[in-house]
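Example 3.2
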Amino acid sequence: MSPAPISIGAQDHTARAKFENEVKRIIETGNRAGVLWRLLGSLAFHEHCPQMGYLQAELGRAYTDIDRAAYQSQAKEIKLKIHPTASRREAANLMIQHHPHRLVVIDPVQPETIPLGVISSYDIVAEMARADSVWQQGK
């Protein structure tokens, strides 16, 4: 008899593959930008011990996020950017996925120019608290 899941629940192969592919994309993007990401947590275990990676699925462990770290000296290169027409929901999803407290709003035509603005996690929380917010409508 297999043990009961010890996280948010079992994950099918497709869901696990999405996380694993996103890790590869993040690492490759970082490499091209000169950022050396250090993968942490369950996805690091899967990447560095592929012959044992099946254990996490077998034990019912689900991927929930992508934990990583970089050198402080690379902080300038690690800015999450968002398009000015992105929704607040898209901004919140980026923050949930990558754990920043701010997103830089860029001009899609001239992304290397001065940023158009910044969205902070406080902006998202304030939006969530509004009575007419999409987050409140689900109550």
